[in-house]
Amino acid sequence: MPHTPLVKVVITGIGLVSALGTSLEESWQKLIAAKSGIKWYQPFPKLEPFPLGLIGQQPAKLKRLTQTVVAAALQDSGLNPPLPDCAVVIGSSRSHQGSWELLARQMHGYDSTTWENKEVVLEDWLNTLPHTNAIAAARQIGATGTVLAPMAACATGIWALAQAALLVQTGQYQRAIAGAVEAPITPLTLAGFQQMGALAKTGAYPFDLRREGLVLGEGAAVFVLESAELAKQRQAKIYGEILGFGLTTDAYHPNQPEPAGKSAIAAIKQCLERSNLTLADIDYIHAHGTATLLNDRIESKIIQQLFPQGVAVSSTKGATGHTLGASGALGVAFSLLALKHQTLPPCVGLQQSEFDLNLVTAAHYSKIQQVLCFSFGFGGQNAIIALR
């Protein structure tokens, strides 16, 4: 069979909501000013207060978060629904877990008045299955094509973009809406991460000597992906091009990365090969940088081992909190704005680095052309994406 060349995939719209702000522009401005959206909250009276990255004063609802970012991405891209011939790939690692917890409390007769969410009733349980958020997004925009709802722990956002890019690259669709949405501030998620010893007690300090764990955050980022030809035809503004991606799994442990980072290194190499890039071509790495002891140590070791010493590195989780499945999508959005403004975003929360890396401590101008965004999820899910 003759080899069909892959279609060029570009990003023409971004919708983003984070603890830093309710829009892409607000989040970016606060990020480059080294602000953090992390504050102390006690959303559930039976649990102690935690530093959290909340968007409002109360935990967000997944459904509203999705509607907001999908509408924002379309508006940013200059598109109006209905968009029947559009693929939808929207992932989440927690999906409707908050609703399930509330239903369980109601069914077992626990008083749920302390958790304001009267919308959840047993009759609606089918609408809270893990994949229904992506289907709701398809309904919102009148899309009647492929709908995918990936779940790959903290690598979900990049997984979703990779799957959508593949649908466009191979000519199955000319357009896709893709990204990830996370509303993870629930009693079970907080208690689970606390039990594991992964939660920070005071704040998020990626790559810092005094780092103490992750801070949970909520957020969402959704993108409009189009073939370069379609974008050109309609004279759409273009944030950047998706060059390639790498997706691997450690097959090692439920929540610890493989110590030598072999599978993560394989994902980086796979991504570069598919993108026709070398290690020296990369100007900036948006690191996973969760501020946990293990992740930052292993991720630093991988970067030091593979890349030339000068490559700029930062993690934005000190500003937004760790948005779990949405974190890679937020990272891609910030990386695209870094390319657009030729500005490196800072590693908020970093004061004294433990590692010999070129970590960005304050936002500054830099000539950048190719960037990589890293996501490493529980269960050893590794996802890397290259953007230009």
Automatic annotation (TrEMBL):
Family recorded in the similarity comment: Belongs to the thiolase-like superfamily. Beta-ketoacyl-ACP synthases family.
Keyword rRNA-binding assigned: no
UniProt keyword annotation of Lipid biosynthesis present: no
Record keywords: Acyltransferase, Transferase
All copies of domain Ketosynthase family 3 (KS3), residue ranges: 6-388
Name of this chain's protein: Beta-ketoacyl-ACP synthase
Lineage: Bacteria, Bacillati, Cyanobacteriota, Cyanophyceae, Nostocales
Single Gene Ontology BP annotation: fatty acid biosynthetic process
EC number per UniProt: 2.3.1.179
Source organism: Halotia branconii CENA392
Broadest EC class assigned to this enzyme: transferase
NCBIfam families tied to this protein: PRK05952.1 (NF004618)
Database matches in SUPFAM superfamilies: Thiolase-like (SSF53901)
Gene Ontology molecular function, alphabetical: 3-oxoacyl-[acyl-carrier-protein] synthase activity
Family matches, as InterPro entries: Beta-ketoacyl_synthase, Ketoacyl_synth_AS, Ketoacyl_synth_C, Ketoacyl_synth_N, PKS_Beta-ketoAc_synthase_dom, Thiolase-like
